[in-house]
Amino acid sequence: MKVEIKVPSVGESINEATISAILKDSGSYVNMDDEILEMETDKVNQAVYAPESGVLTLTVKVDDVVKIGQVIGSIDTDAKPPAGVEAPQPEKKEPEKKEEAPVSEPTKIEAPPTTAAPSGGEARKSEDQYLAELQQKKEAPTPSPVEKKPSAPSGDRETRIRMTKLRKLVARRLLEAKNETAMLTTFNEVDMSAIIELRSAEKEKFEKRHGVRLGFMSFFVKACCEALKEFPAINGYIDGEEIVYRNYFDIGVAVGTEKGLMVPVLRDVDQMSFADVEKKIKEYADKARSGKISVDDLQGGGFTISNGGVYGSLLSTPILNPPQSGILGMHAIVKRPIAVNDEVVIRPMMYLALSYDHRIVDGKDSIQFLVHLKNNLEDPRRFLLDLGI
What we know:
Blueprint: E1 2-6, E2 16-22, E3 29-30, E4 35-40, E5 45-49, E6 54-58, E7 65-67, E8 71-76, H1 100-104, H2 121-138, H3 165-180, E9 183-191, H4 193-210, H5 217-230, E10 236-239, E11 242-245, E12 251-253, E13 255-257, E14 260-262, E15 265-266, H6 274-289, H7 295-298, E16 303-307, E17 326-330, E18 334-340, E19 343-357, H8 363-378
Parallel strand pairs: 12-16, 16-17
Antiparallel strand pairs: 1-8, 2-4, 2-7, 3-6, 4-5, 6-8, 9-19, 10-11, 12-15, 13-14, 17-19, 18-19
Helix pairs in contact: 5-6, 5-8
């Protein structure tokens, strides 16, 4: 029986995709749920999986543009695998008991090599078969040109690679932010001592109870939520000749991947606990880096947090993510001398940067937003601190 392979839906606003990589060739035997190819849209990459086990036939090639729902191949479930290729078994193997004898037998031959054939011909035969199968397993599908790191052959002074749709989208949106908003940035700094002490004291209990680590990001997400309540313009946007104020708090958290920057959105942050925030961030990060994040995960958002500090950035100017009117840039935590009660002390300090659209956000509001954020972070008791411990 032949089972059709169709282009899956990748989001309501996506009608087509580009084939970016063929992971399994036509004529090869695939197991159910094997990745057979990758598609690329202007928002996310999406893997296509084998719907059944059998011999694969594909009717598309790399760079073909396909429509959602289009038939791009089939699986022949009755066909036998090509000669010399063993059909994958769906996990009915005994747990290594049957293989113990042939695998371990060659290791018992302790005699030094001589011109005579070693005893145990069956063991030698099993070893050769094992090596052949191992070599066969090592053969991996050719990686997509998009994923290859640009490496110049000797003698070449330039290397060209095709831009991904995601990279082109990011480039376009950066220009839109620059050309269509009145973007300014204001700066402040925060003493991270209180958060570091609280995190150190509670992180083991937190992880034991919730199964996820207590990071810095949940403090910033919750503190930003409280600040957005006080300064609603930063959670608003311009629509034509109207200003729209959001009465909900959806915050995007920028995640860097090999294929570009993605900003999955935490929904209704005001109703989330610290544990909810940390779990969702981890889920999004895992999905983004494995290429399984969906368009729905990335859509919307009223405010964004970007943490350049994880890469060592000391200070930067984050760029707006239109139509949002504000983005917070976090930076590296560095021990620096500061004045406290007229004494010079060493404290772990972080620079904060708030970029905002000056068409909707006044300079006074942007400054006070950062001051409010700073005060909350330096004394977490000032805002709702539900660690769920």
